[in-house]
């Protein structure tokens, strides 16, 4: 929801809690328009303050208020205790590292009683001015963002008027650069607004120091009542009264009403499975001094904290505060974490990793989890939301608790990033393009994920992009290396999706060809691809389904499938299917065994006014794969089309039905010259990997003595693989193809590939 902000609580950009870092990151607190303040008192051991940074104490707060270590005197001077100096030095450094806003809070005094010293300061203009000057210097020294008045509280009309005047003087000295906040009890003192000096708008926030109370229980001991008491200070007119945009509910992180004060951190240590609705704890636990105590304590529950956060959001309040930061647990039982998590959920702020920033790391987390199943939790009841929180669904990208990380989650995050003015990372889930599925030949740009008729992305969680070499394949012969090493897995419907009857649409992707293939002209094009059908992830009904099918489609400019090569899992078959030619042949053969990687080799033979044909061979690991552009190559199947069927193929497509799981490499497609006359062969790089090394020697050795066109190891171009080609390899051994090209003037491989592909019409010929 959009929260309304008045000038009193956001007088400048400085009060928006760390604004956007260019267009790649923004403060989650700023994006949510919600803050969490935590107090650190001066009695905290120095060793504990030092370890705050590594212990995760600051992970879920936007602001830290240091309390008590600097104490005013009656003249307005400030006395910093030895502990205070150490604390402030460390807190200043931590604020810079963890990007929280540091404030100073004062109550304890030096050289007299609390009331006497504060009255001496606020009641004398000279002392007030001295105090304000010293506070400004202190805040400059420690890079502080605000000052908090914690004198609870004046007792007469005059004292209240003087107190308000001090706040006004501080505000005047700070300008728009710093905030002034004040602490008060749940019940209000009616004297506060009795004089004309009163103006609640002087304060940026009022922290309501009523802890362990619910948001609204229908009594006067709840935050609904506490807030009303503050708003009802209207003796100087409604325009000078407190408004919700200033009021901050409090959260207590300690156990009260027991034999001694105990921290929630120690309670959680005693009961790691503390129930979410527990408002009391009974047992033995160590107090703040380390003494073991037995009894019953009143505590804040996680349910109660969420209620307070929702109460604050519903009433346009700026956030919640805690006493204290260091009493809290630092694991999932942390009330600061509970408040942070709920606030960003309720405001739909995509800080998935709860680090206080909305940035590309959050978007990458969701993209990395696409297709995963955290499990359904729901969020519409207290118990369901607690399950959503404890199972970490939000942190995995399941933003609504439906149990899946799917395209709707990615679309939600993309919409939120756009609304916040943030740039999304280059990931399939957001761009619809396969950023890591590269190494294609004869195609242009990236593979594109399928979209529905409205232009919305289909389920990109069905695809997993792998690192190069993921799909292992070993064979012999000069054609064995003529394939991409990039790989992608296209998954089946999983059990949870089947239960909910989800994700049954075909998985589709396509890519434009670099040069269209016109079957109405003479010429041959070849294509290769590695493929494996995976049975381990299949459900029992899918194992027996005849619909486990992957199709390599050949599409025209309109996106219509003209013909395809289909691989059938349950039938263990490969087939060529004519999709647009009613007179075209459909042929198939067996050999597509499960859980085995094959190399698919195909040929498209145009024949002018005559029939064109499609051929395919499926070659298992260990096969000897020769020059498949040779007339002698043995194809497994060939299908002929009618003489008047002459489509122009402009795109390739891959389609898998939801019952199957397949891992495939990228597709290479081109003329015989693109495969077997690699430009890099001229300098000894016989396998086209950009290096002249032992792998190239293996290609030369396996091809030695072979004669013909388009030989990958024919460095000197004489039509035969012989000793002359070995000499070229030996001369350039240990170098890169690019380096040799620069030294000799030989065009780099990429340039020659482009030239070769552009010359398809010149080198293509009918076999």
Description:
It contains 23 helices and 32 strands. The chain starts with 24 loop residues before the first strand and ends with a helix. Strand 2, helix 2 (46-55) and strand 3 form a beta-alpha-beta unit. The model is unreliable at 1-22 and 744-767 (pLDDT under 50). 28% of the residues lie in helices and 22% in strands. The strands form 7 sheets. The chain has a 9-stranded parallel beta sheet. Strands 19, 20, 22, 27, 28, 29, 31 and 32 form an 8-stranded antiparallel beta sheet that branches. The protein has 767 residues and is an alpha+beta fold. It has 5 domains: 13-253 and 301-346, Glycosidases (TIM Barrel), CATH 3.20.20; 254-299, no CATH class; 359-431, no CATH class; 460-670, Exo-inulinase, domain 1 (Jelly Rolls), CATH 2.60.120.560; 674-763, Dockerin domain (Type 1 dockerin domain, Orthogonal Bundle). It is elongated.
Kindly report the oligomeric state of this protein.
single chain
Uncertain regions: pLDDT < 50 for 5+ in a row? 1-22, 744-767
Distance between the termini: 68 Å
Overall, the morphology is: elongated
The chain-level mean pLDDT equals: 92
Question: Gyration radius, to the nearest Å?
Answer: 36 Å
CATH architecture heading of the largest domain:
Alpha-Beta Barrel
CATH superfamily of the largest domain: Glycosidases
Helical stretch count?
A: 23
Keywords: Hydrolase, Signal
Signal peptide: 1-22
InterPro entries: Chitinase_II/V-like_cat (IPR011583), Dockerin_dom_sf (IPR036439), EF_Hand_1_Ca_BS (IPR018247), GH (IPR017853), Glyco_hydro18_cat (IPR001223), Ice-binding_C (IPR013424)
Domain GH18: 34-340
